[in-house]
Amino acid sequence: MNPKERHTQLIKTKASAFGFQSCGVSKATFLEEEANHLERWLKKNYHGEMRYMENHFDKRLDPRLLVDGSKSVISLSYNYFPDKIIEDDSFKLSKYAYGEDYHNVIKDKLRNLVAELQEEIGEFSFRVFVDSAPVLEKAWARKSGIGWVGKNANLITKKNGSFYFLAEIICDLELTEDFPVTDHCGSCRKCIESCPTQAIISDKIIDGTKCISYATIELKEQIPDYFKDKMDDWMFGCDVCQDVCPWNRFSAPTLEEKFQPNSKLQNFTKQDWKDITQEIFSEVFKKSAVKRTKFAGLKRNLDFLSD
């Protein structure tokens, strides 16, 4: 086995040992096909107030601009599907926000993974990414064979569905590339037909300005009247297009304790949410991704749902 193959095998074995569900490799190069899609999406203003999507256009499409001399993009996925749902007779939040902030949890795993790799391979240049930099994560995950991009624009796998985080290690190692898998959505349109706000306007195209996740997390202004009576009690994010996806019947609970439902949330009633104070918010969401919307943002969402 040559060094390229040996290093690739080592990385995949280590990734599995650290709890990552999947690991695939792509060549670090310019994403030509995605460049056209991103440009059209931005021109139609489907990103709304997410102005950061307009920034670093070239870096989003070329990882060599993020890591000098980079040769490979290592894509990884990590399961976050909870062992219990906490929305009975209460307001709802996306399952990815049930536990601790994934940015910190996954990034720690990536850094420890790379540290072990460097002990065996030797020093190499790298950067790790978890949904916090101009990286087109789904494009790289698709290219590396982790899954296909479904009609709801989420990455889907036959074995695990879509309830997982994506992460990347961009590095200057020469590695053996993987290849994309085929699309298995077929004629199914459940995600498109079930979206409460018709945000999935066509196959793989999302109008972010109509998405409940956008309205409850990204949007900093007042929620538009368009969303009135369409939000189905979602106060932070939305999982509808994943919940109805037939492939998610294969989702198994995560083994990562930090992604299990926060015990403080388990017994919250709608009235508890309506009465939430800054102090309670800070205590309950101290290590949570929900911090992103801040207390004022969550309160705005709850007030909109309660009107």
List keywords for this structure.
single chain, 307 residues, alpha+beta, NADH Oxidase, four-stranded antiparallel beta sheet, two-stranded parallel ribbon, 11 helices, 13% strand, globular
Molecular structure report:
The protein has helices spanning 3-17, 32-43, 57-61, 102-121, 137-143, 190-194, 212-218, 240-243, 270-274, 278-284, 294-306, and strands spanning 22-27, 72-79, 92-93, 126-129, 148-149, 155-156, 164-171, 200-202, 205-206, 234-236. Strand 5 and strand 6 (155-156) form a beta hairpin. It has 2 domains: 3-85 and 95-171, 3-Layer(aba) Sandwich (NADH Oxidase), CATH 3.40.109; 190-242 and 261-306, no CATH class. The strands form 4 sheets. Strands 1-2-7-4 form a 4-stranded antiparallel beta sheet, with helices on both faces. The mean pLDDT is 95. With 307 residues, the chain is of the alpha+beta class. The longest helix has 20 residues, at 102-121. It is an enzyme of class 1 (oxidoreductase). [4Fe-4S] cluster 1 binds at residues 185, 188, 191, 245.
Overall form: globular
Strand content: 5-15%
N to C succession of SSEs? HEHHEEHEHEEEHEEHEHHHH
For this structure, the CATH topology of the largest domain is: NADH Oxidase
In the CATH hierarchy, the architecture of the largest domain is 3-Layer(aba) Sandwich
Kindly report the spatial arrangement of strands forming the biggest sheet. 1-2-7-4
Mean pLDDT comes to: 95
What level of helicity do the residues show?
25-40%
Structural class: alpha+beta
**CATH top level assignment of the largest domain:** Alpha Beta
* Rg (C-alpha, Å): 20 Å
- The count of strands amounts to 10
